[in-house]
Design a protein that fits this description.
There is one protein chain. The chain is 28% helix and 26% strand. It is an alpha+beta fold. The chain has three domains: 137 residues, no CATH class; 74 residues, PH-domain like (Roll); 139 residues, no CATH class. The strands form five sheets. Strands 16, 17, 18, 19, 20 and 22 form a six-stranded mixed β-sheet that branches. Strands 4-3-2-1-8 form a five-stranded antiparallel β-sheet, sandwiched between helices. α2 runs antiparallel to α3, α2 packs parallel to α7 and α4 packs across α5. About 10% of the residues have low confidence.
Length: 481
């Protein structure tokens, strides 16, 4: 069949005991959506012209016919390389190209999560049973690609976490880029600082690639940054923390409510209905245009002119004067020439400069330290050497409106917290003198809920959205580059 995978897929899945089917993804032509919208847009223009010249019947038929023809072109014609399906099951997946043998793979045979290869394609490495060498399975070309990557990572995730868990319990140090996980703590590789399990206040997975860890009793994040295999690292942290530490009264772990297959089906149905509604609107557009053009003259009423409000002169903004560095008191020892680690540059936000810091100037980039450290830009912007830091971005937070609710369940009860808009002011200071050299304001658009809640949590507590990497790069580029 043209729109369904061949029957060999179900046979292969049953042979590998892959369990119930989760979702089906299909390869489409590279140009379906431009073709659909160009065809429908041209039909709308021609339909309006047909109404103007007095042939409305052509306009009534033209838009639906063009929409159906474009949809048939996008869905029925095979893409380059032939028709392909990838069907995800509970315990693996089946990949098949029309006319070829299916490849059935269990999650245990997948080497790791989805990665972007040198060719820019998203792919996974699999080692099928009986094969001598691993096979690279490219996911690009299958749609919807974002849902497919998420489905594969959800299937592979528990397997990868189980591998890392076995290694950690065997005494190995499992590294995830800037983070390392052992059987009793999380370690920050940059400075060797360790965070034992009992001191973890919160664990947050942001956009599937960044981890934010909070230490109990501290408002500032203990660690925040991009981490390879961030989802696996977060799962390993949750799996390694001893139950005795957080399973007792008042120290429950709350996990987000799971997304059920029925919920995914409802989301897909909403998208289909939205697309159908768009086509209906396009089909009715010529009729609406004809009704507006063919309106009798005696029904046309002039629009009353609205009075133009007087122009209000705008005042030029007042630039804040630089905050002078406080002079040390004779009875207080002078501040250190350099902080011990880059995290000591938080004192710059309180007006204390470090005379040993690099002077702000010279060739770009100018290495920067973000005080809250909840976002990262290009690697060339940053340095772990305190002597190379030239500027510091001090973060001031103001909470805005409620964006959504974050629902959790654990220890026999449900907790719902509000996610509010975080409005951030970034004050850029020179690391050497603490002099203010600029400021900018951004609203945090990353509103992902905390992946876990540790300890007692008040439903009245709020979570705050944070800026994305793209936002922080745009805000700081003028000062760094």
């Amino acid at each position: 069949m043209l729109l369904r995978p061949p029957g060999t897929v179900a046979v292969a899945a049953a042979g590998q005991d892959l369990g119930p089917r989760v979702a089906t993804y299909r390869a489409w032509r590279a140009d379906p959506f431009p073709a659909v919208w160009i065809a429908v847009g041209a039909a709308v223009v021609l339909a309006v012209l047909s109404f103007l010249v007095g042939v409305p019947a052509i306009g009534v038929v033209l838009v639906p016919v063009a929409a159906l023809g474009a949809a048939a072109y996008a869905g029925l014609l095979p893409p380059d390389g032939g028709r392909r399906w990838l069907v995800v099951y509970e315990r693996g997946f089946v990949d098949v190209v029309d006319g070829g043998p299916p490849l059935a793979v269990r999650w245990e045979s997948v080497g790791g999560p989805v990665r972007i290869g040198p060719d820019g394609c998203r792919a996974i490495s699999v080692h099928p049973v009986g094969a001598v060498e691993p096979v690279r399975v490219v996911l690009d070309g299958l749609a919807p690609l974002v849902d497919l990557v998420e489905a594969v990572d959800q299937g592979v995730g528990p397997v990868v976490v189980a591998r890392h868990l076995a290694a950690a319990r065997a005494g190995e140090r499992v590294e995830f880029g800037p983070l390392a996980v052992t059987v009793d703590a999380v370690e920050r590789v940059a400075d060797g600082d360790r965070l034992p399990w009992e001191q973890i206040e919160s664990v947050r997975l942001v956009a599937g690639e960044r981890i934010v860890l909070g230490r109990a009793g501290e408002a500032r994040a203990w660690f925040s940054g991009q981490v390879p295999e961030a989802a696996a690292a977060t799962g390993l942290i949750a799996a390694l923390r001893p139950p005795a530490e957080f399973g007792g009264p008042g120290t429950a772990i709350f996990a987000p409510d799971a997304v059920t297959p029925a919920g995914r089906v409802r989301d897909r149905r909403r998208r289909h209905l939205a697309s159908l509604a768009g086509l209906v609107v396009l089909a009715l557009l010529p009729g609406a245009a004809f009704a507006a053009v063919d309106r009798p003259d005696d029904e046309i009423r002039p629009v009353a002119a609205r009075p133009t409000p007087p122009a209000v002169p705008t005042r030029s903004p007042i630039r804040p004067s630089p905050t002078p560095s406080p002079l040390p008191s004779p009875s207080v020892p002078p501040p250190p020439v350099l902080p011990e680690t880059i995290y000591g540059y938080s004192d710059v936000c309180r007006g204390q400069g470090f005379t040993g810091a690099a002077r702000y100037g010279g060739r770009a980039p100018h290495p920067i330290h973000v005080d809250e450290n909840f976002v990262q830009g290009p690697a060339r912007w940053y340095s772990d050497n305190p002597a190379k830091i030239q500027i510091v971005a001090c973060v001031q937070l103001r909470k805005g409106r409620v964006l959504k609710e974050c629902s959790y369940f654990g220890d026999g009860k449900r907790v719902v917290q509000d996610m509010v808009l975080g409005r951030y002011t970034l004050v850029i200071r020179e690391a050497r003198t603490a002099k203010i050299i600029g400021r900018t304001r951004i609203d945090g658009t990353d509103a992902d809920c905390l992946i876990l809640l540790y300890g007692r949590r008040d439903p009245d507590e709020q979570q705050v959205s944070v800026p994305t990497q793209a936002q922080i790069r745009t805000a700081l580029r003028r000062y760094v580059e």
